[in-house]
Design goal:
Distance between the termini of chain B: 43 Å
Distance between the termini of chain A: 56 Å
Strand order of the largest sheet of chain B: 1-2
Largest sheet of chain A: 6 strands, mixed
Number of helices of chain B: 12
Oligomer: heterodimer
Helix content of chain B: over 70%
Structural class of chain B: mainly alpha
Radius of gyration of chain B: 24 Å
Radius of gyration of chain A: 25 Å
Number of strands of chain A: 11
Chain lengths: 433, 292
């Protein structure tokens, strides 16, 4: 204390310093959220340059991306592509991209975006309206093309498609079920006949995005037009079936309420379930040498719980260009390469990623990987989740709702009627923007 | 001479003061400012002045208050459990026995494991089909062997408590062990000569002399426990439903899912206020002890 004879003097200065710093911080914050102008100085596609490509992907997918980059660089010696690895966890990758966009960074130039993100990125002006490049939208599956379209404008180009469908054991189930009642009875009879089976049906019910896609694959309606009222008979039927599969029919273990795709995959590949809900990547693993279900795997759209026509939750990745990028021409060139038939077939064979380009299902691809023939049937009924800038927030509400129903805290109907107003209100804030 | 000394003094503390301002004052003021605005950064809508409406929202929207209650409940239970076990460990490790160094190291290892890793580990351990917990319960023919631990409210809390205690009890043990080691041995000798039992010695000598260390350990653990995030994020994501949604998780959702900086800022400021209250209560208790 004796150190400062004039303590008040020091205090006064400190207060001034804090105030100045705080003011500076506030000013910076003000600038940060308002955002700057658009990328003005564009580099021509023929100039020597380096672009940054942000992408998820481990293992086979990562290797396939590197191979695609190498092939692109060989064809375009003036453009070098650096890969920025995003987290393999979808929610984390989304946050990584959002934080870069919020900071106004001009890289990455090309971003991989899950099919449910483009609207979120397009509304604040983070990704480039691609109209100036005149993309050929007819080349892709319409459902996925829709995922990259916001307010009638194309912001993202489909890279590879994904859809969730029902895997069934051909040796245990004669014909794939077309109703959920049939699925339940098939599962029960398979369980009574084969003691090696631990359950009749596996799906992902943990509190995360997967629960939403599962509900949609069961016939739930989470499209843009449904957000005004999600408390529909179709959603009640789908959500009720999720809970009933566990608690009433007891074909799914209660553990599925904490399972994600990885656990479902383990159950399926381990041969412990006759039915499993999952994405196409499992097909290649099922048919691999040493798999317990090799040659016994079939894949169909999940029967709709409400009795309507079957639908499959659309997944997959799109490609978009950072609006602040100064290398947009080169970025577009790279996107065109990644969506060329040749690059799509190469990726499908190497990493099992189903092509987003319809013409890429060539005889070459189908002969090397025959299961893509089955997959096309599921992709044909692929249904997008809401292409909404507030989808993440809506989904967070749906995840909590599904989790509460699967754990038996409330009925499907009560949960839907409690969540519907919140979802409607969220969507209202989006249409206002 | 005095002036020069003073200037030198300012120079010496300047670095520390600047660091404190940047990492403490700036975020605090930034959040206070945020909390007074409507600012959803992903909306593309410019931020507007909100007054106190974000605070009004957190106290009326049926998310914040239940989370606060859950967080306080968890804090009380976890700190109590961890302190009792930690104290037991510290007393045991303070005794001389062969291989003590090795045992001490083994006890402290969990604390060296990053929380994210330990939380993920425990999530796998509590997996109903492939997890170690149900395996061992089955092998020992104990009840609850078929529990979906993270699928029900109370079992999920139990799992979170176990994961949290496994990671953090060693911290309490370390601090208390240090406290035990500065207690001179001769007072126990004197107590024994006076005919005190072991329990009496523990009750009348060890505990009072350990109080400063106990306070430090408890203040740290209470604040950390109140701000618990990693375990919940990794193990339950606040589920089932919102049963394990604690304040920090709610705050994370506000900032990183909804990008609602106003609402998130209000939660942050509320967290700071409660944390200050906790610190104030502890300091008060601590002071009273010193006077006595």
């Amino acid at each position: 204390m004796t150190w400062w004879p004039e303590r008040h003097h020091w205090r006064g200065r400190a207060v001034t310093a804090v105030a100045a710093l705080a003011a500076a911080g506030l000013a910076a914050a003000g600038c940060g959220s308002s955002g700057g102008g658009s990328a003005s100085k564009q580099v021509s596609a023929s100039a020597k340059q380096t672009i940054v490509f942000a992408s998820q992907g481990l293992g086979g997918e990562g290797t396939a991306s590197k191979a695609a980059v190498a092939a692109f660089e060989k064809a375009n010696p003036n453009i070098k592509v650096n890969i920025l690895n995003l987290s393999p966890v979808s929610d984390v990758a989304l946050q990584q991209l959002q934080q870069r966009f919020i900071s106004g960074a001009s890289t990455p130039d090309v971003v991989t975006t899950d099919v449910v993100w483009p609207a979120t990125f397009a509304r604040p002006g983070w990704i480039q309206n691609l109209a100036k490049f005149h993309p050929d939208t007819s080349a892709f599956y319409p459902a996925q093309m829709q995922s990259g379209t916001y307010k009638g404008q194309v912001y993202a180009i489909p890279w590879f498609i994904n859809a969730e469908g029902l895997y069934y054991r051909k040796d245990l189930v004669k014909t794939p079920p077309t109703t959920v009642q049939q699925l339940v009875s098939d599962a029960k009879s398979a369980m009574s006949r084969d003691p090696k089976l631990k359950e009749g049906f596996a799906f992902e019910g943990d509190k995360y995005e997967g629960a939403v896609t599962a509900m949609q694959s069961f016939g739930g309606q989470v499209g843009l037009s449904n957000l005004n009222n999600i408390n529909t008979p179709a959603n009640q039927a789908a959500l009720k079936f999720m809970a009933d599969a566990i608690h009433t029919y007891k074909i799914a273990p209660s553990a599925v309420s904490t399972w994600e795709e990885a656990q479902v995959q383990a159950a399926w590949l381990g041969g412990q379930t006759p039915f499993a809900l999952n994405w196409p990547y499992i097909f290649a693993l099922s048919e691999a040498n040493g798999s317990a279900v090799k040659g016994k795997t079939g894949w169909v759209p999940f029967p709709n719980a409400s009795g309507s026509a079957a639908q499959a939750s659309l997944g997959g990745d799109d490609l978009a260009i950072n609006a602040k990028s100064t290398h947009q021409a080169a970025a577009w060139k790279f996107i065109q390469y990644l969506t060329s038939t040749q690059a799509q077939v190469a990726r499908a064979i190497a990493a099992g990623d189903p092509p987003s380009v319809k013409s890429a299902y060539t005889s070459e691809l189908l002969s090397k990987a025959p299961y893509f023939k089955d997959e096309q049937k599921v992709f044909a009924v692929a249904t997008p989740r809401a292409v909404s800038p507030v989808y993440t927030q809506v989904s967070s509400q749906l995840q909590t709702m599904i989790s509460s129903v699967l754990s038996g805290q409330q009925s499907a109907q009560a949960a839907l009627s409690a969540t519907a107003p919140t979802v409607k209100q969220l969507q209202g804030t989006a249409s206002g923007g | 001479m005095l002036a020069r000394d003073r200037r030198f003094g300012y120079a010496l503390v300047a670095a520390a003061v600047i660091v404190l301002l940047v990492i403490t004052a700036y975020p605090l003021f930034y959040n206070a400012w945020n909390s007074l605005r409507h600012d959803v950064v992903t909306s593309g809508i410019p931020a507007t002045w909100a007054g106190l409406s974000n605070y009004k929202e957190i106290f009326t929207d049926n998310l914040f208050v239940p989370s606060l209650v859950r967080t306080i409940g968890f804090t009380v239970v976890s700190v109590a459990v961890e302190t009792v076990i930690g104290l037991g460990l510290a007393v045991a490790l303070n005794r001389a026995f062969p291989g003590r160094g090795l045992v001490r190291a083994a006890v402290f290892i969990p604390w060296a494991v990053p929380t994210v890793v330990s939380a993920q580990l425990w999530k796998n351990m509590f997996d109903p089909q492939n997890g170690f917990v149900n395996y061992i319960l089955t092998e020992l023919h104990l009840p609850l062997a078929h529990t979906t631990w993270l699928g029900q409210t109370w079992t999920a809390w139990g799992a979170i408590l176990v994961a949290d205690a496994w990671r953090n009890t060693p911290f309490i043990a370390i601090v208390l062990l240090a406290g035990l080691q500065v207690i001179p041995g001769d007072i126990y000798e004197a107590a024994r000569i006076d005919g005190a039992s072991a329990w009496q010695a523990f009750r009348r000598l060890t505990l009072p002399l350990l109080k400063p260390a106990l306070m430090v350990a408890m203040i740290f653990r209470t604040l950390q426990s109140f701000l618990i995030f990693d375990v919940v994020y990794n193990m339950t994501a606040g589920g089932p439903g919102t049963s394990t949604s604690v304040l920090s998780y709610l705050n994370y959702q506000a900032f990183f899912v909804n990008f609602d900086y106003g609402y998130g800022g209000a939660i942050s400021i509320a967290l700071v206020v409660v944390a200050l209250l906790i610190a104030a209560v502890y300091t008060r208790v601590f002071r009273v002890e010193q006077v006595l």
